[in-house]
Amino acid sequence: MTDNIITSLADTSFYKIQRRIALKNCGVIDPENIDEYLAMDGYMALHKVLTEMTPDDVIQVMLDSGLRGRGGAGFPTGLKWKFAKGYDAPQKYVCCNADEGDPGAFMDRSVLEGDPHVVLEAMAIAGYAIGSSQGYIYVRAEYPVAVKRLNIALQQAREYGLFGKNIYGTGFDFDIDIRLGAGAFVCGEETALMTSIEGNRGEPRPRPPFPAEKGLFQSPSILNNVETWANIPQIILNGADWFSSVGTEKSKGTKVFALGGKIRHTGLVEIPMGTPLSTVIDEIGGGVPNGKKFKAAQTGGPSGGCIPASHINVQMDYEHLAEIGSIMGSGGLIVMDEDNCMVDIAKFFLTFTCDESCGKCTPCRIGTKRMLEILDRITSGKGTMEDIDKLEDLAYYIKDNALCGLGQTAPNPVLSTIRFFRDEYEAHINDRHCPAAVCKELFHYVVDPDKCIGCTQCLRNCPPFAITKTDYIAEGHKLPSVKIDNDKCIKCGACIEKCKFDAISKQ
Amino acid sequence: MKSMQELAAIREAMKAEITLAGKPGAKRVVVGMATCGIAAGATPVLNAFVDGVKEAGIGDKVSVKQTGCVGICQYEPVAEVYDGTERTTYVKMDAEKAKRVVEEHLIGGKVVTEYTIGATEV
Ligand SMILES: Cc1cc2nc3c(=O)[nH]c(=O)nc-3n(C[C@H](O)[C@H](O)[C@H](O)COP(=O)(O)O)c2cc1C
User: Fold this and answer.
1) Quick one: pLDDT at residue A494?
2) Where does ligand 1 bind, in terms of residues with CB under 6 Å?
3) Where are the domains of chain A?
4) Of B4, B15, B32, the CB nearest to A27
5) Which among A14, A283, B64, B112 counts the fewest CB atoms within 10 Å?
6) A269 to chain B: which residues are within 8 Å by CB?
7) Measured between alpha carbons, how far apart are the two ends of chain B, in Å?
């Protein structure tokens, strides 16, 4: 603090409420220098498990810690490891999911770029626990900086003898290969990811058998998310009780969110599980900008749902988010204000999942397409009230019958917007009106003749020449106002941008 | 291959460099060089700090490092100066601003308040 000005990030409300566990070293150490990671107690957890703990001890600590997967489904990490340990096989595999396909999410990239060694160390710990000597990191090729830093980290760890053969002289061998993904959303799904590592087209397969029994190369395998891994060395060093003291009864530890959308401070935030959404929005995020009202937040991206303003105090943990029809997801948190149309949002996410559907199973391939067609109808003013019922029927059918998580969750954004914003769907259908003035065919631009001073800025910038002068001169004005011909208007918004007198509005 | 003793020695030495403990007068500068920072223009900022420190001949007192993302997207490029227990967050940096921070803060010991996070509107 100097002259009452906050000079340190540590003193801002954006930062103070956060609790950094997974992001402990991000923005602190040089990620390309193993010595700096060592200084932050790096590779001490690996040393501890190799010299002081049995594999069963490690798994017990993971179980006791209550850590659950941060990749979306929230499965208990210790349990997953325990299953994989229980199967005998000549080779087992430890995999890291760094595919990060949710639009708007960048938590995992930040961990990989800021603290690559933490993932390597954690994977070696898991290798020891389940009896595996080989790991794979599946990372999307769109993350070149992350890939580069992972490779540097691996190289340095091998040089120091912390990776490879006979680690710490204990006889334990472990190494990792990096596999680049081409950026298909479905390749984040565990069976598709493993199929892709094997060199095949990334398509999911039915479970069971689960990967813990038959995963990569038909061998027992575990897959964990980058952020899940980033918690593990500290759990080993500080103990299960330390970790489980953070968070809520059933959701332990912290969660990293990529906060974006209509929010003053976008960024990466790590908060204790159970923190109310309102704290994230108002205190950490600084609220919705430009005097607009908070309308909803989307968690879980294309697999998740929206949280309306009436639930803004919801605790951000697995149970409470599920209760209101959303999910924790991998950490995307998109804030929306009154200018967002919820039907349009649902269409956006469904367009994404429809595009990304791998096509292997019919419910997802055709079902998402049919749902999208209905949403297109509604947002262009051609919908009927039966369309809402049809959407719901299709949604439940796809959820029940799709082969993998992509299809099983794809209808969620539609269901959740129907649940909380049915009135918006109905306005699109019955009144042929988009209340947020987003869906182009369902609103028009209107000039208020009493506010218009006749400067003709809009008229001169209108691409289809839809604006003309009228004969009306408002009191106190010298020039006639203008009007907009709705048949010619292409809804580009150039006029509203040019008008300095607030005379044009969307209705 | 490093022995346990060697690893312990590296840990201790590096810990002192990062926390500046037992190093009176030492400073550490970190520049956010994750994808987000690089895209916002952090590379010339990092270079300006490295060059500035070298030219001023204060390399024995001040270390300049790249680091990952601290999470404040809109403020990139971000550079932080650790000076004893004092942490200063400089935001929306460019090479020119970095030069001034080298002059006034790293050499002169005075925080350039106008470039800090609290003085900057987003
Ligand atoms: C369509 C689809 C995409 C997924 N994408 C990701 C992803 O990008 N990153 C991730 O960690 N998990 C993703 N998952 C979840 C994984 O299948 C898996 O549950 C997770 O990686 C397990 O790790 P965890 O237990 O540590 O969360 C995705 C799931 C589905 C169905």
Assistant:
1) 96
2) A 69-73, 75, 97, 99-101, 185-186, 188-190, 223-225, 228, 330, 404-406
3) 20-244, 254-326, 342-430, 444-506
4) B32
5) A283
6) 71
7) 48
CATH of A20-244, one of 3.40.50.11540, 3.40.47.10, 3.40.30.10, 3.30.450.40: 3.40.50.11540
| Angle, in degrees to the nearest 10, between helices A77-86 and A55-65 | 150
- Say how far apart CA A388 and CA A392 lie, in whole Å: 6
CA distance A355 to A123: 33
Chain B contact for A25, CB < 8 A? yes
Q: Which residues contact A306 (CB under 8 A, 6 or more apart)?
A: A296, A297, A298, A326, A336, A342, A345, A413, A416, A417, A420, A421
What is the number of the ligand 1 atom nearest to the C-alpha of A193? 17
Along chain A (507 residues), what's the average pLDDT of each consecutive run of 10 residues? 82 93 97 98 97 98 98 95 97 97 93 98 98 98 97 97 95 98 96 97 96 97 98 98 97 96 95 97 95 96 96 96 92 96 98 97 98 98 97 98 97 97 98 96 95 96 96 94 95 95 95
Question: Three-state SS string across A297-322, please?
Answer: EEECHHHCEEEEHHHCCCECCHHHHH
Does the structure show a pLDDT above 90 at B1? no
A173 touches chain B (CB under 8 A): no
pLDDT digits (tens, 9 = 90+) for A223-236: 999 999 999 999 99
Of all atoms in ligand 1, which is nearest to the CA of residue A97?
11
Task: Give yes or no for B84 touching A (CB within 8 A).
Answer: no
Residues A271, A284 contacting (CB under 8 angstroms) = yes
The model scores a pTM over 0.80:
yes
Q: Quote the ligand 1 centre to A121 CA distance (angstroms).
A: 20
Give the homologous superfamily in CATH for domain B24-119: Glutaredoxin (3.40.30.10)
- Domain A254-326 of CATH type 3.10.20.600: yes
Closest ligand 1 atom to the C-alpha of A75?
Answer: 25
Strand-pair partners of B27: B62, B83
Q: How confident is the model at residue B85 (pLDDT cuts 50, 70, 90)?
A: confident
Please check whether the domain covering A342-430 is classified as CATH 1.20.1440.230. Answer: yes
CATH code for the structural domain at A444-506: 3.30.70.3270
Cross-chain residue pair B2–A160, CB shorter than 8 Å: yes
Q: What's the pLDDT at A104?
A: 87
A70 in Cβ contact with A331 (< 8 Å): yes
Mutate to test the pocket of ligand 1, among A223, A327, A365 (most ligand atoms within 8 A of CB): A223
Q: Is A287 on the interface with B (CB under 8 A)?
A: no
Contact A340, A301 (CB under 8 A): no
Average pLDDT of B12-32?
93
- Which residue minimizes the CA distance to atom 6 of ligand 1? A188
pLDDT number for residue B22 = 86
